[in-house]
């Protein structure tokens, strides 16, 4: 028996490819592994993402563009947690992911981390960034 577990992100409109490309640009070991777009006459907007997959440092993600309006969006209760041993990487990720987003816990020292931030990016996806402890 074989299973695959992936984090799945549903975007409204035509944001999935934009978000995926942005995330992949932030990590050294990252790539888009699959993308399927809607064509003419299909149920979604032409060119929007039917389904896509990408990896960030070995973690697999999937995403779609939903053509339907939903009564929900991303919630900070579920977040992508990044631990790095590089303070410079934490600073860069915090700056890039925070652009146009919302900071819920400012970048700083906390009892559980020498450097940590919790934010929602411009797409509404929640991220926790933490400096690895020795």
Automatic annotation (TrEMBL):
Residues 5-129 form the PhnB-like domain. It comes from Archangium gephyra. This is 3-demethylubiquinone-9 3-methyltransferase (Glyoxalase superfamily). It holds the Pfam family 3-dmu-9_3-mt. Coiled coil: none annotated. CDD domains: PhnB_like. It comes from the Bacteria.
């Amino acid at each position: 028996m074989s299973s695959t577990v992936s984090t799945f992100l549903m975007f409204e409109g035509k944001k999935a490819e934009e978000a995926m490309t942005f995330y992949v640009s932030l990590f050294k070991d990252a790539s888009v592994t699959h993308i399927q777009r809607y064509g003419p006459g299909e149920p979604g907007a032409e060119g929007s993402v039917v389904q896509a997959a990408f990896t960030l440092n070995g973690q697999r993600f999937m995403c779609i563009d939903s053509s339907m309006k939903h009564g929900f969006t991303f919630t900070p209760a579920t977040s992508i947690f990044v631990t790095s041993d590089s303070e410079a990487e934490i600073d860069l990720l915090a700056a890039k992911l925070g652009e146009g987003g919302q900071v819920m816990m400012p970048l700083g020292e906390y009892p559980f981390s020498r450097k940590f931030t919790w934010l929602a990016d411009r797409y509404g996806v929640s991220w926790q960034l933490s400096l690895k402890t020795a």
